[in-house]
Design a protein that fits this description.
Bound molecules: pyridoxal-5'-phosphate
CATH topology of the largest domain: Aspartate Aminotransferase, domain 2
Radius of gyration: 25 Å
Distance between the termini: 40 Å
Shape: globular
Strand order of the largest sheet: 5-11-10-9-8-6-7
Number of helices: 18
Length: about 475
């Protein structure tokens, strides 16, 4: 904050402390001062602005009364909130923790809300769940409810239902003590961050990378450093490990969110060598590895490493249904034990009914058949989106052909994706702007389009809407070829 920019007019009818109060409010509103920032002491501020100490004291008191700053005896005065929207209840102003204010952006909530019927959503990463085996799901849930009310309706261990843990352990080739069931892998990331990260710890992660991981790590106070998976430069990764000595390395190695790129076997082996050399634990988030079209990705880091350095997290949202909120962690028993303690503190345990239904569908082959069908349907939808984009954007937009996962990561040539999104929302189509996946400014011209959750005809209409929005935004930007 440049204090020279604060202009106070001694001749004005408005008292100096109120003028100061307005200037500081404006600075908070425009982001020059952020929640959590410390303000100078009243004495120092008086010196900086050549005003009396009483004026500074009155201004801070007024800001505190408006809920924008909080003073702590012996520590000083801190920004505690951004100016509220009109009508927000006074009692709640300034009460939200500065850590939340600083690190929680609106992107995930906007993404969840983009699933409205009138909107064609290319934003949320969801599978073609119109093909979900509803009848088989109903049959197993009914049977479990009737035969095992205690396990479906009662309390369960925080680690997960023993039967599902055993099923997963068999599939992953580990012991059940090394498996923990979570309510979606977003929860796994939250647990890992809360369990392992101490404020100011470093985390090296994909850049661009999964928005939910960025937020979980930052929320726990981690300082993030990026590694660009699309370049897969192992020397750069080694420099980063030497320089930052991170607490952990977070990677999403197959059909990565958002770039859809997959690390080669050679790069995976190189990463493991580095992780061993610098004793850096890896959090491997394989949300998409089973969603390949033609070729299975190389073995996971977890499989390749084998000595407990990798914490392996798997989502069932992309291969089963996001609405059932299921995922799991495979890791060393000691860390599973700690993570289960943290989970028990948060939501106690994951609902038993969906755990048992999943276990039954894993055992009777229904899950695997559905997964095979999803691969086919997703591939078909990817090709429809690529062909529609090709037709609508013979120039102005570029992307790589999808080989699996759920996304196309595209680059605009003449516009920023924020400009396009404003028009696209009006036209009834949504996507994720690239900047959401960068924890520092970046990705302004990128956009992530999810093809898998939309039926082919709607994909075509969505791309037409996108093209109309593009023409509109281009016209407004004044760009001409
Ligand atoms: C890489 C990655 N990890 C985790 C998640 C969260 O998934 P879940 O629905 O299992 O919480 C997502 C969701 O998009 C993701 O892309």
């Amino acid at each position: 904050m440049d204090w020279n920019l604060i202009n106070l007019d001694a001749d004005s009818a408005t008292p100096l402390y109120l003028q100061l109060c307005s200037s500081l409010t404006e600075a908070i509103k425009t982001g020059k001062l952020e929640p959590g920032d410390q303000l100078p002491s009243e004495r120092k501020l008086a010196g900086l602005l050549a005003i009396s100490r009483t004026t500074a004291v009155n201004a801070y008191e007024e800001l505190e009364a408006r809920g924008l700053v909080r003073s702590y005896v012996g520590r000083g005065t801190f920004i505690s909130a951004r100016p509220d929207r009109l009508g927000a209840q006074f009692a709640w102003r300034g009460k939200v923790s500065p850590l939340i204010q600083r690190h929680l952006g609106p992107d995930i909530r906007a993404l969840l809300a983009s699933n409205k019927p009138q909107m064609i959503s290319f934003s949320a990463g969801q599978p073609a769940y119109e093909y979900f085996p509803v009848e088989r799901f109903l049959a197993v849930t009914e049977s479990r409810l009737r035969s095992q009310p205690r396990d479906t309706l009662g309390f369960l261990p925080a680690e997960g239902h023993p039967y599902l843990r055993e099923c997963i352990a068999t599939r992953e080739g580990v012991r059940h003590e090394e498996v923990m069931i979570v309510a979606g892998t977003q929860q796994a990331l939250d647990l890992i961050a809360r369990c392992l990260i101490y404020p100011q710890d470093r985390v090296v992660m994909d850049w661009p990378g999964y928005l939910g991981a960025i937020q979980s790590f930052q929320f726990s106070g981690a300082v993030l450093s990026g590694w660009d998976m699309t370049l897969a430069d192992l020397d750069e990764l080694e420099d980063s490990l030497i320089k930052h000595r991170p607490k952990l390395l977070y990677l999403n190695p197959s059909f990565q969110n958002p770039t859809a790129c997959t690390l080669s076997l050679e790069t995976r082996q190189g990463i493991i060598d580095l992780a061993r050399k610098y004793r850096t634990p890896i959090v491997e988030d394989e949300a998409y590895r089973d969603l390949y079209f033609a070729t299975e990705p190389p073995p996971s880091l977890f499989e390749l490493e084998g000595s407990g350095l990798v914490l392996y997290i798997r989502s069932l949202s992309k291969t089963f249904a996001p609405g059932l909120r299921l995922g799991y962690i495979v890791a060393d028993e000691a860390i599973i034990d700690q993570l289960a303690l943290v989970k028990a503190q948060g939501d106690l345990f994951t609902p038993g009914l969906s755990q048992l239904a999943l276990a039954d569908l894993l055992t009777n082959g229904v899950y695997d058949n559905y997964l095979k069908l999803l691969r086919l349907k997703h591939q078909e939808r990817a090709r429809v989106m690529e062909a529609s984009l090709q037709e609508a954007f013979p120039e102005g937009l570029s992307w790589q052909k999808s080989q699996g996962g759920l996304y196309i990561w595209a680059q605009l040539h003449h516009l920023e994706s924020g400009e396009l999104l404003a028009e696209a929302t009006k036209a009834g189509v949504s996507f994720m702007p690239g900047s959401s996946f960068f924890f520092e400014p970046g990705g302004k011209r990128a956009l992530r389009l999810c093809y898998s959750g939309t039926e082919p005809e709607a994909i075509r209409s969505g791309v037409e809407r996108l093209k109309r929005a593009y023409n509109q935004a281009l016209g407004m930007s004044g760009f001409s070829l």
